[in-house]
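Board notes (copied after class):
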Amino acid sequence: MNVHKQQRSTFRDTVARLADRNADALMRRARRANRIAKSAVYHARANAYLAKSLALEALALRFADRTTVEVDPYLPAYVLVRVEDARFALHAPASRFRPGT
């Protein structure tokens, strides 16, 4: 069986495809945790917000080239984590992010 070069997937293609999938999964996790936190109470709310913060932190760390982290001018205790290509933006506590992240 002769496979054309254009049909073969290279290692770089596979890594890029998996990176996109991983970034999407982190964004979905953060959105889901945010929805749960808004409807939960007490410890469940705190745990959901922690899950959201961890997902946003991982997104900003692993995909720094795709994300921007900026201090919210209206809420200085929070940062806004954005992924412009995905039209995604959520708040996270600024204490979880180092300056310049």
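Comment from the instructor: The first strand starts at residue 67 and ends at 71. The radius of gyration is 17 Å.
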